[in-house]
Amino acid sequence: MTYDLWYWDGIPGRGEFVRLALEAGGIAYRECARQPGATERALVDDMQSPRKHPPFARPYLVAGRLTLAQTANILLYLGDKHGLAPATVEGRYWTNQLQLTIADMVAEAHDTHHPIAASEYYEDQRDEAIRRAASFRNERIPKFLGYFERVLQARGDWLAGGRRWSYADLSLFHLVDGLLYAFPKRMATVSRRFPRVMALHARVAGLPALQPYFSSGRRLPFGDGIFRYYPELDGD
């Protein structure tokens, strides 16, 4: 089966967490927004088309008659279906718990530049963003990365334990990548406190299965998505 992945083109966004799992797992998929003739209107029309279980937002994955939305839910499915998570019930739910924790931090990272409303321009909430980003840098980055550091200390090289990566490791890699882009000064200071997290980031970056994707030009750069760089929001 070839999956259809629906997400906006032009930004990594939450779709990138799904892409990394598909790419690392060698799973066939179509990026629907990048197909010939694809338009933004086509994305809107597909999401609003009648379905038994309609998605609220992108990303969503179409697997035959099944439509799966919400990043963590999609990854739970792919983990079960393609061995991207432990096979035990305990291991599957543990990996999903890790993914949901990553999703919490992703949401907080987004809110550093849009603390009032996603529908308003950054410039209209800049003062509030500066205050929110300071709290995120000083309190939330250490809290979240400290948690993952403790998990790795207890589990070993990979978040779910064992000798092989899970989709949660891929997602933590992308989260750290986004933080390095959006908060380079802060991460330069704080990353030394989390050597296991940074070592995992390096291990995922070097996975042979991901090298074709990284070198293909299909991996979208950060810019106007979840992780954005504003110098005034960064700091040591």
From TrEMBL:
Which InterPro entries has this protein been placed in?
Answer: Glutathione-S-Trfase_C-like, Glutathione-S-Trfase_C_sf, Glutathione_S-Trfase_N, GST_C, GST_superfamily, Thioredoxin-like_sf
UniProt domain GST N-terminal: residue ranges: 1-86
Where does the GST C-terminal domain start and stop, copy by copy?
95-222
Q: What is this protein called?
A: Glutathione S-transferase
Q: Which residues form the signal peptide?
A: none
Q: What is the lineage of its organism?
A: Bacteria, Pseudomonadati, Pseudomonadota, Betaproteobacteria, Burkholderiales
Q: What is its EC number?
A: 2.5.1.18
Gene3D superfamilies, sorted: 1.20.1050.10, Glutaredoxin
Task: Look at the named UniProt entry and state the broad enzyme category this protein falls under.
Answer: transferase
**Keyword Transferase on entry:** yes
UniProt keywords, alphabetically: Transferase
Family matches, as SUPFAM superfamilies:
GST C-terminal domain-like, Thioredoxin-like
> Could you tell me one molecular function GO term of this UniProt entry?
glutathione transferase activity
Q: Which organism is it from?
A: Bordetella petrii
